[in-house]
Design a protein that fits this description.
The chain is of the alpha+beta class. It has one domain: CBS-domain, CATH 3.10.580. It contains 5 helices and 5 strands, in the order H-E-H-E-E-H-H-E-E-H. The strands form 2 sheets. A 3-stranded mixed β-sheet has the order 1-2-3. Strands 4-5 form a two-stranded antiparallel ribbon. Helix 4 packs across helix 5. The longest helix is centred in the last third of the chain and has 24 residues. The chain is elongated, with a radius of gyration of 23 Å. The model has no long low-confidence stretch (mean pLDDT about 85).
Length: about 160
């Protein structure tokens, strides 16, 4: 399974914000949409990611006050990205090594979507469920030996 396969199942909803937008407005959007990240775009180009991790750090730095600081001053300037043909196992490895929960999928300069750690976990569980069903079907169709047949003769 590849990153593009996960996006095809997930759908193409994409939520973006500009670096100039006030952080409090971005947080309101995240809360209203019940999402954990926003892609930060500037003139059609990916320039960063805003996730709850960056938000928590900003809130701690400002002693609990969000204020009107811009998204660009708190976003992750260099988010981990992947290609549409990145394999699921490689995507998992990337996310675990960088402690990344959201990965934009880029085809050149075009943002295809964002894959979350939840999306990856769901894809893994669905793949395992499919494999389990196939194995169970295979076992169910296993040829049954005739009860009257003699046991196999061991080699001498």
């Amino acid at each position: 399974m590849k990153a593009i396969d996960i996006l095809n199942v997930k759908g193409n909803a994409l939520y973006t914000v500009s670096p100039e937008e006030p952080l409090d407005e971005a947080l309101r959007t995240m809360a209203e949409l019940d999402i954990g990240s926003l892609v930060v775009m500037n003139h059609g180009h990916l320039v960063g990611m805003l996730t709850f991790r960056e938000v928590i750090k900003a809130v701690v730095r400002s002693s609990g006050v969000v204020g009107t600081v811009g998204v660009g001053s708190v976003m992750d300037d260099f988010p981990q990205t992947c290609l549409p043909d990145t394999e699921l196992d490689e995507l998992r490895r990337m996310m675990l090594l960088r402690h990344t929960r959201y990965v934009p999928v880029m085809d050149g300069n075009t943002l295809m979507g964002v894959i979350s750690f939840y999306d990856v976990a769901k894809a893994v569980v669905e793949a395992q469920d499919f494999e389990n069903r196939m194995l169970k079907a295979y076992i169910r169709d296993w040829p049954v030996e005739e009860p009257d047949s003699p046991p196999p003769t061991p080699p001498s």
